[in-house]
Amino acid sequence: MSQKKRILITGAAGFLGSHLCDRFIAEDYHVIGMDNLITGNLANIEHLFPLENFEFYNHDVSKFIHVAGELDYILHFASPASPIDYLKIPIQTLKVGSLGIHNCLGLAKAKGARVLIASTSEVYGDPNVHPQKEEYWGNVNPVGPRGVYDEAKRFQEAITMAYHTFHGVETRIVRIFNTYGPRMRLNDGRVLPAFIGQALRGEDLTIFGDGSQTRSFCYVDDLVEGIYRLLHSDYVQPVNIGNPDEITIKDFAEEIIKLTGTDQKVIYKELPVDDPKQRQPDITKAREILGWEPKIDRAEGLKRTYAYFKTLSSEELNKVEHNNFDKYIIR
Ligand code: UDP
After folding, report:
1. What is the pLDDT of residues 11-24, one digit of tens each?
2. For residues 287 and 290, what is the distance between their CA atoms, to the nearest angstrom?
3. Which run of H or E residues covers position 284?
4. What would be the CATH architecture of the domain defined by 6-181+218-244+279-296+320-327?
5. Ligand 1 pocket, 206 CB below 6 A?
6. Is 149 marked active-site?
7. Where are the domains of the chain?
8. Ligand 1 pocket test: which of 215, 218, 246 has the largest number of ligand atoms within 8 Å of its C-beta?
């Protein structure tokens, strides 16, 4: 019988899921990846298939899940995770955050496994407290276009806590703020792949609204380290993981223009409904409880990310749908 710890990672073929697979493989775990490939991409984990301590199930976690043998940990990272995705596939977004986590928790209870769920800064909605700390309950519009994601993630936290208190399942909750890095999907509508893709295709960069809204971007390796530490901690309440270095979207566009050397300009488009005006994590808890803080600044992280996007073929670059919310905007 193998001595390796066994971990199930849902959303394994996605941006974050694939980086987590890499990390746990590097730590000598037996990794069981699961993904239904709606938004995931096998190319992100192709390098893991030859390994003995990696297996993959092409399965929708919203349907009953079974994993043979022992299981020590479950990371629930399956979910569409960008505004354009929630607008295109709202029902799947709700199902994976509700039925999907219910299946994971049931499996965890049966196996005695510890579960860590990917929650999000979206639970704070369009926040009226700044920066956001874990005790803030949020300002979410349940029936707006982001409601399907925000409320699914809020439900996910609630059911996770309920399994912890009622069934004694060991649970951890990470609230992830904007994260970037290699393997982001070029066409997911997120601001970083949108801007870099536009620069590489020689298009103007599209700023939504006047660009005064802020975000705080965390490099993926920092995020993975925070998650790794949280999983192995004994802290049950939610923990923010993100980089507090806040920037306006307008200044961010300027950074991408400099980074890529593009001579394109910025153009302004309508701001999507319920787009949060500002977002910055308060990471006091992560610092104190996990001894964690981000190490990779934006200049370095953007350099690494741009290097990845430059490796994409021109076919991949050009098959992108235009980064346009217009047809999805709900009024
Ligand atoms: N954004 C933008 N241009 C784009 C894509 C996004 O100005 O081409 C803006 C978007 O309106 C938001 C910010 O960039 O204010 C971050 O958007 P993203 O979708 O990356 O993440 P989220 O809104 O979920 O933080």
Report:
1. 999 999 999 999 99
2. 6
3. helix 284-285
4. 3-Layer(aba) Sandwich (3.40)
5. yes
6. yes
7. 6-181+218-244+279-296+320-327
8. 215
